[in-house]
Design goal:
There is one protein chain. It contains 18 helices and 17 strands. An eight-stranded mixed β-barrel has the order 3-4-5-14-12-11-6-15. Strand 8 and strand 9 form a beta hairpin. Helix 8 packs antiparallel against helix 12.
């Protein structure tokens, strides 16, 4: 067993050796201890300067606490080896001793603690490196990080210190439980594949039906007593298929067609990776969340309004097509506009609207559109040489006037951002009947926008009758929010309902792969700004 306590006679020597050892690592290009890369050399230096080079990891019990938390990182979808699990575990079982050995124990344990703290607080990966639209705050401004670490070490209760940092959200806890459940399925051998073939439905028979039954039992979509003949597609199996489809964002018809078969045959290992990717996303996002916010789940085609940690209203949304992907970012909703106009964005104007007008001059009148100058003055479209617009810049704007056919519908919700993305109504209401709803140019089309407006304006003296009167006036009316509401556009490919149902969603933008690959890579030695402060002790 590792013996870390030192006598007063050797304390001074240990302080000097620790100081020299840290100084040596500071001048090394890629410092390591026992083969483990040391990330937080600058932070370690500042910490032990504060401690006057006094060792912190003297008691084996404290090292054991750290080691247990390192192993427990797997429950967060992380790799314990990112936190020096092998090296610290070996030290707990070693009888080696000596000033250099004890100094290296200090360094490797403190580096592991810093890595754990940073990862729980911010996530392992830098989301801005994966998505250029990312603008969530990841700084540690106002925190004396070195003192916080020193207080944790002085307390001796490493477990409690790390629990304070771990995400404290019911959604995160549910994802952790889902991860444990799917790993248990993996340990039991996973699930069998369902062979390809014609669609399976009520009344189908054969070995493929038996395989389907076994597959659905593995994830508890099918429960209850076994069928007398497992090769017959009965009503219980139809209900199980429907449940599976609902959990995976598929049109729930109880039949196993190509889309359902595709999801059935995703291996358990891939489902585990999806859950791990979404745990990482949760670590990026849910810090210092306001009491009230609106959250758009892009992959889930859903908008939720949350107040005091509870979802008070939800609706379906349509999001951007894969080549017009809705960006992930955070902003503040400032106002609502009833009976909005729509000024066509430059890309749509150039690629879609102008070619349509050149082809059909009645396009403008049929779509209730006006040509306007940059100052807003309406221009007679008959005075414009439309054929010439194909060869040079168009000097005007095209605005769609308020009305039922307006592309923004009859109400929009503005949160300023450089992507010109916002929430709005839509005339394409029939598309909400689809399960997968990636149809827009990037904005979020909202199914029940006037209900949303009513919730947002309730505390400003606006009831539904007042909203309806403004709407019926057909006049463009801006209503400022007295208390701007945070809007978060996020991307979740897995989540867990209150009843524990695990839901997987199609990765419509193909974003999971980079996160899963990043989680498998070694811990970054050069963390980004904001995280660097925590690792290096500069906060």
């Amino acid at each position: 067993m590792l013996f870390l306590s030192v006598s007063a006679l050797t304390a001074a020597d240990d302080q000097q050796v620790l100081r020299d050892r840290i100084a040596s690592l500071s001048t090394t290009a890629n410092p390591t201890v026992d083969g483990a890369p040391i990330t937080a050399v600058r932070g370690i230096t500042k910490l032990y300067e504060l401690r006057n080079w006094q060792p912190a990891w003297i008691e084996p019990a404290m090292v054991r606490q750290l080691y247990d938390r390192i192993l427990g990182s797997a429950e967060h979808g992380l790799n314990p080896e990112d936190f020096h699990a092998r090296q610290i575990g070996a030290r707990l079982d070693s009888r080696a001793d000596g000033p250099v050995y004890r100094a290296d124990t200090e360094i490797i344990c403190t580096d592991a603690l810093a890595r754990l703290a940073v990862t729980f607080e911010f996530g392992k990966l830098d989301p801005s490196s994966l998505d250029r639209a990312w603008n969530f705050d990841r700084s540690v401004e106002g925190q004396d990080v070195v003192s916080l670490f020193n207080n944790a070490l002085n307390s001796g209760n490493i477990a409690a210190a790390l629990e304070e940092i771990e995400p404290d959200l019911v959604e995160y806890d549910r994802l952790q439980r889902a991860l444990a459940d799917y790993r248990a399925i993996e340990a039991r051998g996973g699930w069998p594949g369902v062979p390809t073939g014609e669609a399976l439905k009520l009344g189908s028979t054969g070995p493929r039906v038996a395989a389907l039954r076994q597959r659905l039992r593995a994830t508890d979509d099918l429960t209850g007593p076994d069928s007398a003949d497992p090769g017959i597609f009965d009503a219980a199996l139809e209900a199980a298929v429907t449940r599976f489809q609902q959990r995976h964002g598929i049109d729930a018809d109880g039949k196993v067609g190509p889309r359902t078969l595709e999801e059935l045959n995703v291996p358990v290992e891939a489902r585990i990776d999806t859950i791990r990717a979404n745990l990482e996303r949760a670590r990026w996002v849910f810090r210092d969340v306001e009491d009230t916010y609106a959250i758009v789940d892009i992959a889930g085609y859903r908008l939720d309004l949350v107040e005091n940690g509870r979802t008070v209203w939800s609706t379906n949304v349509q999001v951007g097509k894969p080549y017009h992907a809705t960006p992930v970012f955070k902003s503040k909703m400032k106002y609502i506009e009833i009976n909005p106009t729509w000024t066509i964005p430059p890309g749509i104007l150039r690629n879609e609207t102008l070619p349509a007008i050149r082809k059909d001059p009645s396009y403008l009148s049929r779509n209730n559109m006006s040509v306007v100058t940059m100052s807003g003055k309406i221009v007679d479209p008959a005075t414009i040489d439309w054929a010439a617009t194909a060869g040079k810049g168009f000097p005007y704007m095209i605005r769609q006037e308020p009305g039922a056919r307006n592309a923004l519908g009859q109400v929009k919700f503005i949160f300023p951002n450089k992507y010109m993305v916002y929430l709005h109504d839509t005339p394409s209401k029939g598309l909400f009947a689809r399960t997968e709803r990636a149809f827009s140019h990037g904005c979020i089309r909202t199914q029940n926008p006037f209900d949303f407006a009513e919730h947002l304006l309730d505390n400003q003296g606006w009831d539904r009758a007042r909203i309806d009167r403004v709407h019926e006036s057909r006049k463009t009316t801006r209503v400022n929010l007295e208390m701007p509401v945070t809007v978060m556009l996020l991307y979740w490919t897995a989540d867990v309902a209150e009843d524990g149902t695990v839901r997987f969603k199609k990765d419509v933008y193909g974003r999971d792969a980079k996160i899963i690959a990043g989680l498998a890579e070694p811990f970054r030695v050069d963390p980004p700004d904001g995280i660097r402060e925590a690792v290096d002790g500069q906060g």
